[in-house]
Design goal:
single chain; alpha/beta; TIM Barrel; eight-stranded parallel beta barrel; 12 helices; 8 strands; globular
Length: 278
């Protein structure tokens, strides 16, 4: 593997994406592609397609378990989902969310949580929501040898404090706070930071001010990369339609048609056929 990524072909030829790879991609102006996965099969598909980063997100609470928020998912759940994903990945960098309650306000608990994710699941990095208040926790985890990705803007674990999923940092005071938090996370040692649902000009400004990559979701095209929930991008979750989601497929419709075909052929006794029987 080359020590420096200079072109998209270099990225696609990587046998393993690392935090250094992402740094090189930012420096070379190559956008980073990131998607979520929560199970072996989906992870294998999107890893095989060439995605750079797979996020085992606490959005599993919504997508896999049907909860209204990300708050109910536990560390045990996240370890399980991460284990499934890691088994299906051979190239992408696997980042795992530390769930609500597993790190806030207690650096010792946060370190123990990160160790579980890295040791039991074989993940490559963890992700945490927050700015200045979690900087000491970030530093402690990184000092133990574990990479940390930050997350600013709309932070779903704080939804009950926000009271809404509306765009964050529209006002000058909050925008300045976000810019300060981004620099603090960089100085604390984060290798990248997610910027969620903030004005595109602000995201572009923050991205230009940092030496580490930014990954946007609902933050415009000025970030160093983009992330979506895979189930949203593939049209599997049709009751969630924020402005920032693009449906690259409509698999829910296609799967529904396939299931109906199966039911019809079972009812009509055309499945299984003689060639499909023993």
């Amino acid at each position: 593997m080359s020590t420096r990524i200079k072109a998209i072909d270099d990225v696609e030829s990587l046998k393993r994406v690392t935090t250094r790879s992402l740094q090189d991609m930012k420096q070379s102006g190559i956008p980073i592609a990131m998607l979520t996965a929560y199970d072996f099969t989906m992870a294998r598909v999107i890893d095989g397609a060439g995605v750079d980063v797979i996020l085992v997100g606490d959005s599993a609470s919504n997508v896999m378990a049907g909860h209204e928020t990300t708050l109910p998912i536990t560390l045990d759940h996240m370890v399980y989902h991460a284990q499934c994903v890691v088994r299906g990945v051979s190239r992408a960098l696997v980042v795992v969310d530390l769930p609500f309650g597993s790190y806030q306000g207690n650096s010792r608990r946060a370190l123990a949580s990160a160790i579980r994710v890295m040791k039991e699941a074989g993940a490559h990095a963890v992700k945490m929501e927050g700015g200045e208040k979690i900087a000491p926790i970030v530093e402690r985890i990184i000092s133990a040898g574990m990479p940390v990705m930050g997350h600013l803007g709309l932070t779903p674990q704080h939804i009950y404090r926000f009271g809404t999923y509306q765009v964050r940092a529209r006002e000058e005071e909050e925008a300045e706070r976000l810019k300060k938090d981004a620099k603090i996370l960089e100085e604390a040692g984060c290798f990248a930071v997610v910027l969620e649902k903030i004005p595109a000009p602000l995201a572009k400004e923050v991205s230009a001010s940092l030496s580490i990559p930014t990954i946007g979701i609902g933050a415009g095209a000025g970030c160093d990369g983009q992330v979506l929930v895979t189930h949203d991008a593939l049209g599997l979750t049709m009751d969630f339609n924020p402005r920032f989601v693009r449906r690259f497929e409509h698999l829910a419709d296609r799967m529904t048609d396939a299931v109906k075909s199966y039911i019809g052929e079972v009812r009509g006794r055309s499945f299984p056929s003689e060639s499909e029987s023993y």
